Amino acid sequence: MKKYVIAIDGPAASGKSTTAKLLAEKLRYIYIDTGAMYRACALFAEENRVSLEDIPSLAELLERIEIRIEYSDAGNRIFLNGKDVTARIREADITKLSSEIAVIGIVRKKMVELQRKIGREGGVIMDGRDIGTVVFPDADFKFFMIASVGIRARRRWLEARDKGERLSLEEIEDELIWRDRNDSTREIAPLRKASDAVEIDTSSMTIAEQVDFIMNYIGKRKMRSSYRLLIFLLKITMRLFYRYRLIHGERIPQQLDLILAANHISAYDPPMIGAIMPEEIYILAKIELFRNPLFARFISYLNAIPVKRGRVDRKALERVMNLLRHDKPVLIFIEGTRKSSQAKAGVGKIALETGKDILPIYVKNSNRFWDCLLGKKRLCIVIGERIKTSSLPLQASNKENYRLIAEYVLNKIYELDNECQDS
Ligand code: CDP
Ligand code: CDP
After folding, report:
1. Ligand 1 atom closest to Cα of 99?
2. DSSP assignment string, 351-389
3. Element (H or E) spanning 232, and its range?
């Protein structure tokens, strides 16, 4: 199985390292605490009495620094040029110095180099401040942990108390606020959430909940390698032959636990929409497509769900609702068939009964292969704004509301045509 690179960033005491360590155990991955590396640099500078303004001397120190991380059940042990500094680097003076040394370009360059080397092969969980933005911008998974400063201070205060350190809650909170500011306002690799990272507010979560959240998230996103390969080939086809354009791709949520509702103009719409989604999706497909056993196996493999048309197919409906309740994304063509232009009420029923939101998707020119190839047209897929089912003014479950919701969604889909007039 593919070995992922998992990036976890966030401010101090948001829960990164405890989560990363437990995840690494579950997945049998390597865990790298990059904060410990900056802390080791700070300690090395301090031991050698090198001022942080003295860049040439720092450069010389970096030539000589050797940081080794050893894995043990009790947590990682950090060795600085052969000496175990695990406890020392957690002390207050080094904590502050680590944030100060972390603004220096040559220090970051060296650390990032080391981190990339360790993570090259995958199967690694790295926590820090810039992992998702700088060290591994292409990481398979990116998480950004946050928690209120009061809660973070309390967590650190409890840790200090357990170690017998006498620090007041106020002192700890002041230090955290100072460090947050220093880390997020520096010029190089500041602490910030990567646009494609999933934010987790751990303020009222337990450590076990954090780990479960990430494990579930990763489990859901795991694409079978053949599915991944098909998507890759499809995307190339879409780019080369259809000159494809995705508009408002940023509206595709990181948590794809909703109904994908699209218009339908070509038999290629389902795979094309599947290809732009970050995880495997499920698709309703007319039962006639399942007549040929070989083809049936192929599309079933691609998560197609057979549906009888012309009347309510309770079995298919149940299956779809079940998938949605398990947070799987299901693609529904709202007009039912390619030839219809009327909304089918089913989507309204599914949305109201599962409470899942709807993501409108508009597809244009997927039926104009030759025009696209000849440069006259372009395949255009527009993602609409998420429709929050709970805020629709039609909450009662009845046929009339199902139909009204379906029509509302269909209108939203066709409004997206404005976004690709020039296609
Ligand atoms: O454990 P805690 O969250 O308190 O801090 P840490 O992760 O050990 O990081 C110590 C300091 O190193 C941070 O305040 C940052 O200034 C710096 N750091 C960084 O700049 N980039 C990273 N990838 C990790 C840490
Ligand atoms: O690595 P980072 O600085 O982001 O935080 P951490 O070292 O994982 O967590 C800081 C402290 O908060 C640890 O003592 C954790 O056991 C504790 N913690 C907690 O009590 N509840 C959570 N949900 C997360 C962390």
Report:
1. 16
2. HHHH---EEEEEEESTT-HHHHHTTS---EEEE-PPB-G
3. helix 225-242
State the distance from the centre of ligand 2 to the C-alpha of 209, rounded, in angstroms.
Answer: 12
In this model, does residue 1 exceed pLDDT 60? no
Look at residue 246 and tell me whether its pLDDT is greater than 60: yes
Mean pLDDT for the stretch of residues 219-238:
88
Mean pLDDT (the chain, rounded): 92
* Strand 77-80 to 67-70 pairing: antiparallel
Q: Which pLDDT belongs to residue 352?
A: 94
Same domain, 60 and 206: yes
Tokens of 102: 């972390």
pLDDT tens digit string along 274-288?
999 988 999 999 899
So what's the pLDDT on residue 60?
96
Residue 317: is it exposed, middle or buried by C-beta count within 10 angstroms (0-12/13-18/19+)? middle
The domain that holds 100 is classified in CATH as 3.40.50.300
Q: How many structural domains is the chain composed of? A: 2
Range of 320's domain? 225-417
Give the domain-ending residue among 191, 221, 251: 221
The secondary structure of residue 416, as a DSSP letter, is: G
Measured distance CA(358)–CA(253) in Å, rounded: 11
Q: In the structure, which protein residues have their CB atom closer than 6 angstroms to any atom of ligand 2? A: 10, 12-18, 127, 155, 159, 202, 205-207, 210
